[in-house]
Amino acid sequence: MSVQPDADLEPPVALVTGATSGIGRAIALKLASDGYYVIVHGRDSQRGKETVQEIESNGGRGRFVPADLTAPEDIARLAANAGAVDVLVNNAGFSWFGPTADLAVPMFDSLFASNVRSAYFLVAAIAPKMAERGAGSIINVASMAGQIGLAGGAAYGATKAAQAALARAWAAEFSPRGVRVNAVAPGPVFTRGAAPDRTERLGSTTLLNRAAQAEEIAEVVAFLASPKAGYITGATIAVDGGRTAI
After folding, report:
1. How much is the pTM?
2. 223 C-beta neighbours (distance < 10 Å), count
3. CA distance 147 to 21
4. From the CA atom positions of the chain, what is the Rg in Å?
5. CA atoms of 19 and 34, how far apart (whole Å)
6. Closest by alpha carbon to 12, among 21, 20, 22, 1?
7. Would the CA dihedral through 41, 22, 117, 97 be positive or negative?
8. Of 16, 49, 149, 190, whose Cβ has the fewest other Cβ atoms within 10 Å?
9. What are the backbone angles phi and psi of residue 96, rounded to the nearest 5°?
10. Distance, CA of 124 to CA of 76 (rounded, Å)
11. d(Cα 207, Cα 241) in Å, to the nearest integer?
12. Strands ordered across the beta sheet of 37-42
């Protein structure tokens, strides 16, 4: 699904947050293979370097930009460094599962700062410029945890429900000026940071009786970023093997 039909043209730019591992890395690699110049965001410089090297070894182009998205000044610096962004993927964040009474206030605040506040203020910095140009695509990575009740997932699920709500509100705000905003809501996904036994157990609850690979999520994000999804905005696409259908 190439987005660069003319080799003489500058490639469109995609900024992927949390792109040095897991779903974010798969998204960065996929967008690069589709012809985007990918700005790889993360906090680990070594993993960022390795991700860019893999992009380049596959014939793509990109660069790594480190930033702590819980720090407002780093969000502003990342947005300025990125310049004119055509596609923004809000993927950065982390999960926490456990009894409600066990979640301390500092961790609660950190979870919302990383999963919600960072995306909000990055969009605040980037989306108005997209709207001025009359084009752009923003994709939030939500989760099935934001759509169904999971014991121990109250706070994390709330942050992911927020990602879907933000996508709808931003679509209402920016789509009349040409910026499409959507979300994907993955189900269980095999990633390096996820416990394989928990992922397999959750995968067995889906209609497809398995967990996803990160590349399967990346394919849907790439579709939403592309002109082929030109009439889709304000949607949350479930990529969960049918889990939320039952």
Report:
1. 0.95
2. 18
3. 24
4. 17
5. 16
6. 1
7. negative
8. 149
9. -145, 125
10. 10
11. 6
12. 61-66, 37-42, 13-16, 87-90, 136-141, 179-186, 236-239
Domain boundaries, the chain: 13-239
pLDDT by residue, tens only, the chain of 246 residues: 666 645 567 999 999 999 999 999 999 999 999 999 999 999 999 999 999 999 999 999 999 999 999 999 999 999 999 999 999 999 999 999 999 999 999 999 999 999 999 999 999 999 999 999 999 999 999 999 999 999 999 999 999 999 999 999 999 999 999 999 999 999 999 998 788 899 999 999 999 999 999 999 999 999 999 999 999 999 999 999 999 998
Residues designated as active site? 156
Task: Give, in words, the CATH class of 13-239.
Answer: alpha beta
